[in-house]
Design goal:
It is found in: Nucleus; Chromosome; Chromosome, Centromere. By secondary structure, this protein is mainly α. It has 54 helices and no strands.
């Protein structure tokens, strides 16, 4: 029987949901013609009516081809393609015709038609059982559901709503459409007969309270869609009531002679009928809401909770007068705290549909004030999709009311424009644009700008953008800020004319003068906008790479590139002229030409602007010695000298003139410095250093071999080595310039013909330079030593045996192999300059940001040094034993270099497993061996294998009946064998048996005790051993043992040799088992729910609950009704919490790293298998199969 609980449905004729109804309008004449459903029948339990009230049985097959006896017809495949379930699954028939056929059968025999509908819901849940007519008439719903539960397939937990594939995705859509069309087609008569809807709602209520997940999930979806369809009907009835009432009032207000009494009586009768129908719909909706929604919105399954929240959002949107109030909004507000991102996401999307309609905002005011803090905090949600929707919702709230958000709330969203996740940043950019950069009256602002002599009205907005960028104090992330605003503020960011105007022209009266910091920030932002427009893809760190542009995007990119070229090709020389002394501004401005359409110089007859640009670049080169500026000039020349452009010759001439001048200056200054020697003054040193910096910067991007820079650089280095008085900056630049010269010579040889003379000359140059670099390793200046070390590593890598791969055997004379002396020097350099203590640096004052930045920079440099040497080990350029001194630093410097050492170890193992194992043994020392082995199970297994080999390697000279001399070493191995994983113990034991003879196995004398003890330690644990390294874990319980047997794949017997190889640390692919015993969690059923008041006695004090949560909302707002219960207290929720706690405990006790092949992501994927809830439930002694 339906629960009669009153829901007050407001009847506002101006309701906005009218446009969302589907075929719900009904005129007075249509109401008059629908005679069915007027006579109200007494409610009773479905299926218990007397036989006299039944209509005559239909023929065995109805109009739609379905069996009418309530039993599915079994064809060869075991399913009847004419059942409702099969028809909906196939989706080949129009849903309205399917419903019409069912309505026709319902009019002939409603019991059999309802039986078809009941079996439809049962089969949609994945149940193989079928409800028969006898069961329908003689059994209660609970008995029927219990019977159907036994018909579930125990081997599979899948059911139609969870199955993958396009067919089942379409089935979900068809399933929902079936319910909506069913109510729509029955809305004028059948749904008011107090039988069909009573039966369906009663069935769905019982199914939704089942412990079987498939029943709960399917019935909840059906009930929520049924409720949505009823909301449409209720909205339509409300509208018709209002229309009828207006017609009645209009007719009654007529004068007596013109008043039609018959029409008044007809209108009164229709109004009464509509009110009765409205009451019926209210009762149905109350039954669904109170019987299903209030229980399932806190179900243990996230998908079920998400369905409830999604549909209540639809109800609020369709019928806001009835549902958009605090009594229903509280459910959405509470669920904002849900533990699953999927449910939180549905909450936010439901709220977005409400906040989009500004007319609804007054009804949301209390909700906004109550849950605003929670919504703002969700902008930092760990799930990026949730964070994006939270930001969009905050933007809608801001759009609805400027005063709804405080400055602190806005600042929490502002900083997200610098997020590395692009969707989050773009959503934050939309919020920022709405708050700061949206123009309220564009036409008035444009008129004002023209009156003031400005070409663009965006001047103030650009100033505000610059101010925001400076105040954010993240000046290195200008590209991120531009990318975040690109979708929402393109008109502002592409206004390059306005930006140039602000930089070049003097401010007008009333405008503030741009300061130096503001000008630098504006130039940086302008360059970032130019890059974004020209490249049409996000900056590095945003996105997964360059995607293929659509035709529209490609056209926009071309148009933007042409427009920025048109604006800046003229303005760039003027900007360089104004800021030519400012290194930061010039370095940014020199990036602009690479985004030009350089053909415009020739096609647009703008060679004079090209000459002006080249002139300004030459001035910049003369004035600056900063490497950043010089490299920008070099790159600009390289781009302009591209062979694909007709301007190449003009630019090449200018470049050659510049290099000639620099070379003359460099040659004279070097001669002066060499002649004066120790007597050289600061001017001589400055002349050499400044010119050398410029040539080095140009040599990086240009082939300057015809100027033979190596000769003078080599002379400077030799003088520095011989006299020891060369300034460190000159030495560093000379080393770098010589390195570039060698690389350009190698490029010419590999790309052109390879003459013997060229190879000999290059070999001589490389040999002499390597000798110089080796000598520089002992230099007193650290920068010189570090530069020499890096160049040595790079050149040894380039001129290694890999140079001749790919059919380049002719380059064999250029291959260099470092001798042992050089290898030792490189290794000692790493040990002296990489693995150093930072105690003195760590004692610096806290809060010194500059000092912290210096520490990070120094660590980055040391990591590069270690990585350069590690590459020599990985590519077999340096002997692998040299890595022993690197590996032994693993524990002490784990935080700084652990990833590099681990990767080196992994690559070395792939290169030569035996040599790698020997190298590891060399690196183990007793002071740090225990911690190292605890961190790496790989090293632990290698240690045991090599230890066994060491113990048996030397035979006893007295004969095989005596123990080997090194057998006592097995006592040492006993200390670590207990920490081996179970599968690794088997591998090590198999390896041990290869060295043991039958005679050894039978010995029990004291001299054999090390072997006996070690062998027993490997056999300890057996199949129930989970993880030996976990101390304090109790023995596994019976349930966990059964679970392990079920989850373990069958192991086939193999030969010991095969098992030793396939189970070794090289080939192992096993899964670590869970430590300790897992207790089967207690199941809680929704069918026998504890009294809320009694359950409240066991609920801990929640005074400290989070603001906006359900208990806090209940306590402070009083919106909670008697039906409400504490959130998330339903099926399986408690057991899931236990599993998460056990996961945390497992992470705390796990102290051995997995092999290098299993990274953290893979380990995270393995953990759910350790604590699989399905495996736990299988061991519980339950009377019926459960599905979760």
């Amino acid at each position: 029987m339906l629960i009669n609980i009153c829901i007050t449905l407001s009847r506002d004729s101006s309701n906005d949901g009218q446009g969302d109804t589907v075929s719900l309008s009904m005129s007075v004449s249509e109401l008059d013609d629908s005679g069915e459903g007027k006579g109200k029948k007494k409610r009773g339990r479905p299926g218990k009516q007397g036989a006299a009230s039944k209509k005559a049985r239909r023929s065995p097959v109805d109009k739609g081809g379905r069996r009418a006896n309530g039993v599915a017809h079994q064809n060869g495949e075991g399913t009847d393609p004419s059942t409702l379930f099969e028809v909906v699954k196939q989706g080949k028939s129009a849903m309205q015709s399917v419903i019409d056929d069912w309505i026709e059968s319902y009019k002939q025999d409603r019991d059999l038609a309802l039986l078809d509908l009941i079996n439809f819901f049962i089969h949609c849940s994945g149940c193989k059982g079928t409800v028969r007519i006898e069961m329908f008439r003689n059994m209660q719903n609970a008995e029927i559901i219990r019977k159907m539960t036994e018909e579930f397939d125990e081997d599979s937990g899948d059911y139609p709503l969870t199955m993958a594939g396009p067919q089942w995705k379409k089935f979900r859509y068809n399933f929902c459409e079936f319910i909506m069309v069913l109510v729509r087609q029955c809305q004028y008569s059948i749904i008011y007969d107090e039988y069909m809807m009573d039966t369906v709602i009663s069935l769905l209520t019982g199914l939704s309270d089942s412990q079987v997940r498939a029943f709960r999930h399917t019935s909840t979806l059906a009930a929520m869609k049924l409720m949505t369809a009823l909301v449409n009907v209720a909205l339509n009835l409300s509208i018709n009531q209002d229309n009828t009432q207006r017609q009645y009032e209009a007719e009654r207000n007529k004068v007596a002679g013109k008043r039609a009494n018959e029409k008044l009586e007809l209108l009164l009768e229709k109004r009464k009928e509509l009110q009765e129908n409205q009451d019926e719909i209210e009762n149905m909706m109350n039954s669904i809401f109170k019987g299903i929604f209030v229980h399932r919105y806190r179900d243990a399954i996230a998908e079920i909770r998400a369905i409830c929240i999604e549909e209540i959002g639809v109800w609020m949107k369709l019928y806001s007068d009835a549902f958009l109030n605090d009594s229903y909004l509280k459910y959405v507000g509470w669920t904002l705290h849900d533990r699953q991102g999927e449910v939180r996401l549905k909450c936010l999307k439901a709220l977005q549909t409400l906040y989009t309609n500004r007319e609804l905002y007054p009804k949301l005011e209390l909700f906004t004030n109550r849950f605003k803090d929670r919504i703002v905090s969700m902008t930092l949600d760990k799930e990026y999709d949730v964070a994006v929707e939270a930001i969009r919702l905050v933007t809608l709230i801001l759009h609805g009311s400027e005063d709804a958000l405080s400055n602190e709330d806005c600042e929490n969203v502002y900083h997200l424009v610098y997020s590395a996740h692009r969707p989050v940043a773009v959503a934050a950019g939309e919020f920022l644009h709405r708050k700061l950069f949206s123009r309220h009256d564009p036409q008035a602002e444009e008129a004002l700008a023209k009156r003031r002599g400005r070409n663009s009205p965006n001047g103030n907005l650009i100033r505000m953008l610059v101010l925001f960028f400076l105040e954010s104090e993240l000046h290195e992330h200008a590209a991120y800020l531009v990318d975040s605003l690109w979708d929402s503020s393109q008109d502002l960011l592409k206004d390059w004319d306005c930006m140039v105007e602000l930089l070049l022209e003097d401010p007008l009266q009333g405008e503030e003068v741009l300061g130096d910091r503001h000008e630098s920030a504006l130039i940086e932002l302008m360059v970032c906008t130019i890059r974004q427009a020209a490249e049409a893809h996000p900056p590095v760190g945003r996105g997964t790479g360059k995607r293929v542009l659509t035709a529209k995007e490609k056209k926009t990119q071309i148009d933007d590139k042409n427009r920025l070229t048109e604006h800046l090709i003229v303005a760039l020389p003027m900007l360089l002229s104004k800021y030519q002394t400012d290194a930061e501004k010039v370095a940014n401005l020199l990036q602009v030409p690479q985004y030009f359409d350089l053909e415009v110089y020739s096609s647009g007859r703008m060679e004079k602007h090209l000459d002006a640009l080249l002139k300004q670049i030459r001035v910049v080169v003369d004035k600056h010695t900063e490497m950043e500026v010089l490299e920008a000039c070099s790159k600009t020349y390289s781009i302009l000298c591209s062979e694909e452009y007709t301007i190449m010759n003009r630019v090449d001439i200018a470049r050659s003139q510049l290099i000639d001048e620099l070379m003359d200056r460099f040659a004279h200054s070097v001669e002066d410095l060499l002649q004066e020697g120790d007597e050289a003054d600061d001017d001589d040193i400055y002349n050499v250093l400044s010119t050398l910096k410029k040539l080095t910067a140009f040599h990086n991007a240009h082939d300057l071999t015809k100027w033979d820079l190596f000769k003078n650089c080599y002379r400077l280095l030799k003088m520095g080595i011989e006299q020891g008085s060369m300034p460190e900056q000159i030495a560093v630049q000379a080393l770098q310039c010589s390195h570039y010269s060698i690389l350009w010579q190698l490029v010419k040889i590999t790309e052109g013909c390879q003459s013997k003379d060229d190879l000999v000359a290059l070999r001589r140059v490389v040999k002499s330079f390597l000798a110089v670099c080796q000598q520089c390793l002992s230099n007193v200046n650290t920068p010189v030593k570090e530069q020499a070390f890096m160049l040595l590593c790079d050149l040894l890598m380039i001129f290694s045996h890999q140079l001749v791969t790919g059919g380049r055997d002719a380059l064999q004379p250029l291959v260099f192999n470092p001798d042992s002396t050089l290898q030792n020097e490189l290794l000692n350099f790493v040990l002296d300059h990489v693995f150093i203590d930072q105690d003195d640096e760590n004692q610096s004052m806290e809060g010194d940001e500059e000092d912290e930045a210096n520490k990070i920079e120094a660590l980055h440099k040391r990591r590069n040094l270690l990585a350069a040497f590690s590459k020599l080990i990985i590519y077999d350029i340096v002997d692998m034993p040299a890595a022993a001194d690197i590996f032994k630093q693993y524990m002490k410097y784990y935080n700084d270099y652990g990833d590099i050492i681990k990767e080196t170890l992994s690559k070395a193992r792939q290169m030569d497993k035996i040599q790698c194992a020997k190298t590891l043994i060399l690196s183990l020392h007793w002071l740090w061996i225990l911690n190292l082995l605890q961190r790496s199970s790989l090293m632990l297994q290698i240690f045991n294998l090599d230890g066994i080999e060491f113990a048996f390697k030397v035979p006893n000279p007295k004969g095989p009946e005596y123990p080997p001399p090194n057998l006592a070493f097995l006592e040492v191995l006993c200390e670590f064998s207990s920490k081996l994983l179970r599968q690794d113990k088997k591998t090590v034991h198999s390896y041990l048996e290869k060295f043991m003879t039958e005679y050894m196995m039978e010995r029990r004398e004291d001299v054999w005790l090390p072997l006996i003890a070690y062998r027993n330690s490997l056999l300890t644990g057996g199949d129930d051993d989970r993880l030996s390294v976990t101390t304090g874990a109790s023995s596994t319980s019976k349930a966990s043992t059964v679970r392990s047997k079920r989850g373990r794949p069958p192991q086939h017997k193999r030969r010991p040799e095969e098992e030793a190889v396939e189970g070794s640390w090289v080939m192992r692919n096993d899964t670590i088992q869970t430590p300790g015993a897992l207790h089967t969690p207690q199941l809680t059923s929704t069918a026998l729910r504890e009294n809320p008041r009694q359950a409240a006695d066991h609920i801990p004090d929640q005074d400290s609950s989070e603001p906006g949560s359900e208990p806090d909302y209940m306590h402070k707002r009083g919106l909670m009704e008697d039906d409400a219960e504490p959130i998330f207290e339903d099926v399986m929720m408690s057991s899931r919490g236990q599993l998460e706690d056990m996961n945390e405990e497992f992470e705390d006790t796990m102290v051995i790293d997995l092999p290098a092949s299993r990274n953290r992501r893979e380990r995270a994927e393995l953990r759910p298998d350790f604590f699989d809830s399905t495996a736990i439930m299988e061991d519980d002694a339950v009377s019926a199969p459960l599905r979760y």
